[in-house]
């Protein structure tokens, strides 16, 4: 698995978990969805992604998006 795959999988998982929590617990968990979306948007423009840095430190191979 590359860093690119891990970042996309992690973001998708966080969105699904947030949606489940919003449905089961409180609609305020939708704010977490907004945070994940904004983080993905800024990573697309700046190339800075904290999750990619963590996955790189864990030893995952670099992909074409995050080096």
TrEMBL record:
The chain crosses the membrane at residues 32-55. InterPro entries: YgaP-like_TM. Keywords: Membrane, Transmembrane, Transmembrane helix. The keyword Transmembrane applies. Pfam families: YgaP-like_TM. It comes from the Bacteria. Residues 2-62 form the Inner membrane protein YgaP-like transmembrane domain. This is DUF2892 domain-containing protein. It comes from Phreatobacter cathodiphilus.
């Amino acid at each position: 698995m590359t860093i690119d795959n891990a970042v996309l999988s992690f973001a998708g998982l966080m969105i699904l978990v947030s949606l489940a929590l919003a449905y089961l617990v409180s609609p305020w968990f939708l704010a977490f969805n907004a945070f994940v979306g904004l983080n993905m948007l800024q990573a697309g423009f700046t190339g800075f992604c904290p999750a990619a840095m963590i996955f790189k430190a864990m030893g995952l191979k670099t992909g074409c998006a995050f080096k």
